[in-house]
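A protein record in our archive is deliberately plain, so that people and models can read it alike. The tokens are whole numbers drawn from a learned vocabulary of local backbone shapes. For reference, a complete record is included directly beneath this paragraph.
>
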Amino acid sequence: MLTKEYRICMPLTVEEYRIGQLYMIARHSLEQSDAGNGVEVIENKECHDEEHGKGQYTEKRIHLSSRLPYWVQAFCPKVFYIVEKGWNYYPFTITEYTCSFIPKLNITILTKFEDNPGTSDNCLRVPDATIDERTIDFVDIAFDEVAAKHYKKEEDPKCFKSAITGRGPLIEGWRQTDSPVMCSYKLVQVSFEVWGLQTKVEDFVQRCIRDVLLLGHRQAFTWIDEWHWMSIDDVREYEHKKQEEANQKVLAEQVPASSDPDNVE
């Protein structure tokens, strides 16, 4: 198992980010969805935990088949997806990823949001037995580079200035000088216990997760003028609308896995 703790700071408060995160996930999921690919929402309902209280449970299918390398598509089912289960007890969340086609691959992400620049030592309560194995990685939304295919100047925190809040552009050392500032602490554990492939696959998955976290947090900030006015009810309504649109796009031309068992494109 490969364990990393990502710390992603934002020029927001924890309460602001609650809205921004929901908006970003809903919009990003729709933008990344098309026929047969993207995010399909299966469940989105309230839940309760004795320690964390009332929360929101979501279950999603992330369809990937045609976006995989051709050599992987050759042995994947025609309809291939990863299951994401999330329990959101904001400011604490739990997310789990599994794949029925690759049962030995498991990903767990524990997240805690705090109003500080990433200075909490162990807010996720990592056990003593695990803490020495943990690698801490600070993700800088302004100065870490995103892949060229995802880069947009209007989503670059070094260039963006909010018309509503006046925040940005972000400059070197912004985590120590800007106010407000909050941090998303994410403990990511990736397990793929297959001899000969474990290290390579676990490292690859961690790098992919880091890329997603960097892009998503950049967008949450640079889209601030579109969500900053929203209440929690407003953003839940927006989320529901975008989830319906995404489901329609993903399922538009999807072929049942059993309909063409010999097709291994």
About this structure: The CA atoms of residues 46 and 56 lie 4 Å apart. The beta strands are 2-10, 38-49, 53-63, 81-89, 92-98, 105-114, 135-139, 182-192.
